[in-house]
Write a structure and sequence with these properties.
Blueprint: E1 3-14, E2 25-34, E3 37-44, E4 58-65, E5 70-81, E6 89-102, E7 106-117, E8 129-142, E9 146-160, H1 163-172, E10 189-202, E11 205-214, E12 230-241, E13 246-257, E14 266-281, E15 284-298, E16 303-321, E17 324-339, E18 342-357, E19 361-371, E20 376-387, E21 392-401, E22 405-413, E23 418-428, E24 432-443
């Protein structure tokens, strides 16, 4: 049985870091694969599901076994979180397990995660928490290329570890949590979440329906920034005619947020969009898009309505002169927004050019103008790239104007089959800052 061992070294140094102290070595991992067994040792991102664990960088070990139709995997380690003591410590324990079966037409996997913060200080800016979440995911392929897939999660136990102490301290002084406006998020909660989508193709036509629901009390520490109390329905229809010369997509999205809370913004949103691409000739195509958005927000203090209509059109040309291949596109977009009966208009223009040659040289230029009525932003980027056959490439992009970012990046094949990606960026936000990134990979 063939084996594969990978070495991944990922570093970043930035002066714009605010929340966490900078980590120069952001990822160091080894990923051996032997037959049906794969392991990740060091810094890695386990992907169970968004309701159980996904997007959290774990410093530890994971393995996944997939012999024939059987799946079994486990994760153990710590997650980096911020706090008042030392920013960015790896002090959140993370454990996960998945077990199930998988074939070409059917998949069913159960998943679990347990995360626990080791600190329990009441006076810390960082709020220590713990969670226990279970989930299930499935995929089904039916005749006619119809696909159904979905996942669900159940938060057995998610709470602020200081809530009990804080509640006791306030009760001793004659208060309750609700009396001072604290959210019930401090106490233990049990809730569920799910999503599923159905894909139905019929010759040149495809239809997709997607449903998302996240309960008001659902939380998992395994997925950062996952918002709860959401109900979302998405309908999408695609049509593709004349061997790709005509393509159109229609999308309708309706979403409701925070309907079970009177303390935060209750939002109801409806969004329609139509995108069309016409390519009558090999060297010419035109893309157009129209969308309309309606949003209403309200809470205990205020409410507002927001409506927006927008459209854009992009013609694109491709042609060749001598050894130089040209690609040019221009985008014109306009939007009208209405906020509580006040109207705002925005006009956007973008022109882009890319020229490339067979010897590996290429140049690019990108010009943007955004007119917001009272303010106008103009910025431009020009760059060049050189490819060295199988040995890598190097590119440089310089930014000018209101949005400035200049970058030099390179990909190289090093001795002993090491591969390196590196980049240096110099940009302006509230001040001039720089960011340096390096990634080195070696497969054995």
């Amino acid at each position: 049985t063939a084996g594969l061992i990978g070495l991944n070294l990922n570093g970043e140094l930035s002066t714009s870091e605010k929340r966490f102290s900078p980590e120069f070595i952001k990822q160091l991992s080894i990923s051996p694969t032997i037959g049906f067994l794969r392991m990740d040792i060091g810094d890695h991102y386990p992907r169970y599901s968004k309701f159980v664990m996904s997007g959290s960088k774990v410093r530890g070990i994971s393995f996944l076994m997939n012999p024939k139709n059987f799946i079994f995997g486990m994760t153990g380690g710590r997650v980096r979180v911020g706090g008042a003591d030392k920013d960015g410590e790896y002090r959140r324990e993370a454990y996960g397990m998945q077990l199930g079966m998988k074939s070409k037409k059917f998949e069913l996997i159960t998943k679990f995660s347990r995360l626990n913060d080791l600190s329990s200080k009441i006076d810390s800016i960082f709020v220590p928490q713990e969670s226990l979440t279970a989930g299930i995911s499935t995929k089904i392929k039916l005749p006619g290329k119809i696909k159904i897939q979905g996942e669900a999660g159940y938060s057995f136990h998610t709470r602020d570890k200081t809530a009990e102490k804080l509640d006791s301290a306030l009760s001793y002084k004659g208060f309750e949590l609700g009396d001072i406006g604290l959210s019930p998020r401090l106490s233990s909660r049990v809730d569920y979440a799910y999503n599923y989508n159905i894909y139905i193709p019929v010759k040149f036509f495809q239809f997709v329906y997607q449903k998302d629901f996240i309960g008001p009390g659902f939380q998992t520490l395994g997925t950062p920034y996952l918002k709860n109390d959401i109900q979302k329905d998405l309908y999408r229809a695609n049509i593709n005619l004349f061997k790709g010369k005509f393509y159109s997509s229609v999308i309708y999205l309706t979403q409701k947020n925070n309907l079970n809370s009177e303390l935060t913004n209750q939002t109801v949103m409806d969004n329609y969009s139509v995108s069309t691409r016409i390519r009558p000739f090999q060297y010419f195509s035109i893309n157009g898009r129209f969308s309309t958005l309606s949003r209403e927000k309200k809470d205990s203090l205020q409410s507002y309505t927001y409506d927006k209509n927008a459209f854009s059109i992009t013609p694109e040309f491709k042609f060749k002169t001598g050894e130089l291949n040209h690609r040019m596109s221009m985008t014109y977009g306009s939007s009208i927004s209405e906020y509580n009966n006040d109207e705002f208009k925005t006009i956007n223009f973008r022109a882009r050019y890319v020229g490339s040659m067979d010897n590996g040289y290429s140049i690019n230029a990108d010009m943007n103008k955004n007119d917001y009525g009272k303010t106008v932003r103009n910025y431009m980027t020009i760059g060049a790239t050189k490819k060295f056959n199988q040995k890598g490439n190097i590119s440089a992009n310089l930014g000018f104007g209101d949005k400035t970012e200049s970058t030099i990046s390179a990909f190289m094949i090093l001795p002993w089959k090491f591969r390196m990606n590196t980049s240096f960026s110099y940009f302006r936000m509230s001040r001039y800052s720089f960011r340096y990134r390096i990634n080195i990979v070696r497969n054995f």
